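Task card 7
Instruction: Convert sequence to structure tokens.
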Amino acid sequence: MNEADGGRQLGFWMCLALVVGNMIGSGIFLLPANLAPLGINAIYGWLLTIGGSLCLAGVFAALAKAIPEASGPYDYVAKAMGAPPAFLVMWSYWISTWVTNSAIAIAAVSYLSTLAPGFFAISGVPALTAIGFVALFTVVACTGAQVSGKVQIMTSVLKIMPLIAAMVIALIVLGGGDQPAEFAPTPVTQGNIAAAAALTLWALLGFECAAVPAARVKDPGRTIPRATMIGTLVVGLIYLAASSAVFLLLPADVAAKSAAPFADLVGSFGGRRRR
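Output:
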């Protein structure tokens, strides 16, 4: 291995984990509550934004293939518009990731609080726990691309598990002859679909993540396009199926008030099984 290749430590699976892990964040775990009042418009919103995200992912895939020597999105913009616009684009991007990291930490605490409500009811514990999550993963990121990539694979699997559990529960419950839950009777209109799409788009951000560390990716002209398109498609399908599970099994009024819809879905299913 030559010196130039020595820093390229991220292969296809790590890049795929970057896309999947960064796309699956706070959005999907909190969105069912926000989408519940919109009824079936939420499904149309998911379909619309999944298709749009695949188009945007295709742009990043094409850029990575056309400019494999680029060090990331900064170079894509710089080659077309120069350094100042590239700087502004990337600076805005990093600011958005700071906000996202905070939202993910808060969502994690929200779900953990369902496991230990007494502990998280103590004043200051939720905030300190969220700060601890941010600090922990900052330390992990500072250890280097190899360690960060392995942690990303592990956390991606952990985040996918509750979504798959929701899909399995839906198959079991509905396959057993149970009737779907009542959903909000909101009429299907362009305005309502647009409102749903505005919410679902937040959960689909992150498809660009394989391109960000391009300088550390092995064979970027081939690896980044594959990871970007496959990751976006896989996450889109998981989102659609998992959200539909909550939509079909939790009544709209229950989902709308839930701080942890997937946890409530699992708890509701467990209650049925015990009876």
